[in-house]
Structure formats: structure tokens, C-alpha cells
Amino acid sequence: MQQAEILVENTAATEGTSTLRSIGGATFVYKIITTGKQDLIIACDPVLCPKGHVQNYGLFKSTRMQEPALEGDADLLDVDLWLLTHGHEDHLDSFGLERILNGKKDSIVIAHPSVEGLMKKVLKQKDLTFGNRNVHWMSPAQDLKLEINGFDITLRSVNAFHGSCRKIGAMVGNGNGYLVSISSNGNHHSRFYATGDSIYNEDNISDDYKELSENPLDFIVTNGGEASMDKKKIIGAIATRVIGSITNNSKNIIEMHKKLKARKTLVVHHGTFSHYAEVLEDKTSSFDGNDDIEAVFPGETVVIV
């Protein structure tokens, strides 16, 4: 199996490559650029509220600290496949939902069942078909095969435990990670793991380790930031002490990268909201000199050659 070289650049890609672009928070776009047929565009968790917007989670509130790094008004309207990991508003908000609804009519949506509750209670949606699109509601440990634009795509939904253990994750709201394998004309193109909101440890990964490790991962896209409850409020501070962090920090990411032996681990979901506690100052210094782990900042593009 031929493996792709991965470079990190803040530039556009040429034909014959694929790219991963961060928009901010958990929102990223993976694009395979082709010759002779349609490109393939996969996007994850569109949260597109403006800087300064406040989200209310009950026990705490969180403020968006950065503008979403969108490439114009038409950005994300050409997405073929949407991956929605779980039902929290910093992963799908009304602004992101609008992009899905105004986008390609034949786009496909993959969603954890908790997204249904978010749609009804927070986004006030009665129509759960995303505008009569093909929607696959997937719980962990389910498989799906798709054909889009001449690409064969195999998806496996894996557990995303939203805390240091399964019980705490269930309190916060567990979701999906997605293992995605893409080929064309029988030739491997890429295999990647989008972790969703989770904390890596041996127990949290145990149910899915076989599937994640049986074939090489070209890259991992992981949610960092060491998210936690807002420590400024009394109730939030108590919840933080009881629950702890609810997404990966740098140490978790280093351990995951070593265990899963990915060729590259790319870190999103940091710095965007005020409840993302760990600030990454640059691309690599938080990861103990491991050059195969890099933070991707909003507006940056990873070019896969």
C-alpha cells in the first residue's frame, strides 16, 4: 500500500493532492483534488458562530474567541459528506446547520443519535432530515459503505468517550469518532481517524483498538484544547473538579499517537471557545518534540502529497 507524504503548508493545493483545512473549533474540511472527475469533500462538525457569540450549556457559558476561518460566503456549500460527532452546540450550531441546508442537495450526513436532541432542543428544528438529505444515524460500532464521486468510502463509527472514563463521558454526553477509509478504482487513497470529543486512555480506546490498529492510519484528526467546565462560576468550578477535562490535552495526544502509530496526528479544537483550557502557542512545542504531531490553526491547510 502506497503511503502519502504529508506536508503542512498555509497554501492552496494542486491537482492530485488532498488537503485538510481547519476552520476553527472542531470544524475541518478534508478534500481530495482529482483530475478527470469530481473532487471529494468531507467536512466535520460545522460550528460557525461569530467571534464573541456566547453558547449556554446550563452549568456554564462559553464565548467564541476567534472568527471562523471561512473562505467566503460559498465556503462549505460544496461538501459531499458531513460527519457530525455528537449533540453539543460547539460542534453544530445554527450557522453551521445553515451551511448544510444551503449546500449540495445530494450531500450525505452521518450523525450520532445525540445530534437529534441538539436539533430539536437547541436548534429548534422539526425536520430531522437536514432538508430531505440522505442521513445515516450511527451509534458506535456500526459500519457503512458509500460511493461518492467515484470514490469508495468505508466508515466505522467508534466510541468517543467525552471524559476520562465512560461513566463521566456519559454524564457529559458521549458521541462518535469516525474511522474513514477511502479508495478509488481499487487503489487505497487514505485512511484516517477523526476522534470527536474524547479523552484517550487505554480503557476508553479498548473497544475500538482492533479496528483502529489493524491497518495503518495515514493521519488522525483529534480534538484537543483540554476542554472543561467554566471555572469562573461556583457550580461550574464544582463540576470541573468532579468531572475534570472532557477532551484531549497534549499529553493524551502524545500517548494516542504512540499507541495507534499514525503517520501524522493533526490537532484541531483548541483556542476557539473560552472553555478550551489548553492554549497551543505554536504548531509543535506542546508535543515534546514529536514532529509527527502538529496543531492546525484556523485558516491553515495541511497538504497531503
UniProtKB/TrEMBL annotation:
It comes from the Eukaryota. It holds the Pfam family Lactamase_B_2. Gene3D superfamilies: Ribonuclease Z/Hydroxyacylglutathione hydrolase-like. Transmembrane segments: none annotated. The keyword Zinc-finger does not apply. InterPro entries: Metallo-B-lactamas, RibonucZ/Hydroxyglut_hydro, UPF0173_UPF0282_UlaG_hydrolase. Residues 62-270 form the Metallo-beta-lactamase domain. GO terms for molecular function: hydrolase activity. Keywords: Hydrolase. Coiled coil: none annotated. PANTHER family: L-ASCORBATE-6-PHOSPHATE LACTONASE ULAG-RELATED, UPF0173 METAL-DEPENDENT HYDROLASE MJ1163-RELATED. This is Predicted protein. It comes from Naegleria gruberi (Amoeba).
